[in-house]
Amino acid sequence: MAADRRIVIENCAIATVDGHDTEYASGYVVLAGNRIESLGAGRAPEGLENVVRRIDATGHLVTPGLINTHHHFYQWITRGLATDHNLFNWLVALYPTWARIDEPMVRAAAQGSLAMMARGGVTTAMDHHYVFPRGSGDLSGAIIGAARDMGVRFTLARGSMDRSEKDGGLPPDFAVETLDGALAATEETVRQHHDSSFDAMTQVAVAPCSPFSVSTELLRDGAQLARRLGVRLHTHGSETVEEEKFCHELFGMGPTDYFESTGWLGEDVWMAHCVHMNDSDIAAFARSRTGVAHCPSSNARLAAGIARVPDMLAAGVPVGLGVDGTASNESGELHTELRNALLINRLGAHREAALNARQALRLGTYGGAQVLGRAAETGSLEPGKLADLVLWKLDTLAHASIADPVTALVFGAAAPVTASFVDGRQIVEDGRLLTADEDAIARATRDEAQRLARIAAQA
Ligand SMILES: [Zn+2]
């Protein structure tokens, strides 16, 4: 939308998720081009010029768009498998199938993953992709193209693995890259696709998969590469007791100390899970401003444990939410993770004081922007920030009898999305994507899932 064209949204409750948690029981938001121009209580200012659209949002809550900080899009076509396994057994069961993916499969899976999140209010997505079988095509290009076509803001965490079965790792030998090959391909992806501008739609991070699937050299050299290129770093950390044991046996230290020894703590780093953290691990994350992608449903699905989110927040660790790959969280929706984060953390040590509705909403918005390094641009509704926001419909059977809109959104059923805007462009209307054909994507993902299952069965 041209910079001088305005959209006015009025008569809605607003949760800005700014530094003071400012909320308006009834207010307005004015979008100008791809930015939020103004917002506040009551009606929009009179006399605005070039208003191309006025939305009467009565019965709605407007929030910043949701930000997903950890995912593996390709897993969309391997959902519902190995359903009763812990992480290591689940990985061993699925790697032989994942090793057979190709470009059409990855494209369809990316579309499925993105569509499911976008229509549930996600405006910034990320994909940690780390399986690059030899001769499988331009997987990074396919994923980035899918996000661009859908109109979702996007970070590709270009993953890699170089520790296979023969080196004591879990992936089969043919599913991994060489150290030099992984570093060169990652650098090429950054150079080709990373945009560092304020309103970037595509960014790239350096993202070796996990301590137990990559060599120490790939971690250390990957960190140096990211800092040389000025991009962020992402990986899995401290997910399970088995991983902790693996690190002690191989490296003589726990995961956080191992990460520190390889250059992997810092304000340009975010890690998925961080379930098994002691007090000194949390202090190290807080001191270094290392971010965390909290994935409550996936952690429950794989029986990994409960991350100490209240302790992390109290220490000042930046925390966002992630759905994780959909082979370990079959729903693939982020708005339901607001509720799951709140409920699962209340099963931990802090009980009813663990998280409240506003903290859960903050994890899914501003916290996500922090860990993706985009808090100046998105994650809260403030003048000058990007026009990424969602209108949640809260006046139907599911929510109408709950007085407080943020409580309704977080504690209640998954709320319908009346409209979702990214960069000032509407991508969802009444729960349906405007930028893609959901039914065509559903068919393509089913076809590609069946093709992958056939190829894997023949291998
Ligand atoms: Zn993951």
Automatic annotation (TrEMBL):
The signal sequence is none
**Keywords for this entry?**
Hydrolase, Metal-binding, Zinc
The protein's matches in Gene3D superfamilies, at most eight in alphabetical order, are given as: Metal-dependent hydrolases, Urease, subunit C, domain 1
Residues in Amidohydrolase-related domain copies: 61-425
Q: Which domain of life is it from?
A: Bacteria
Give GO MF terms, alphabetically: deaminase activity; hydrolase activity, acting on carbon-nitrogen (but not peptide) bonds, in cyclic amidines; metal ion binding
Name of the protein described by the UniProt record: Hydroxydechloroatrazine ethylaminohydrolase
Lineage from the top down?
Answer: Bacteria, Bacillati, Actinomycetota, Actinomycetes, Kitasatosporales
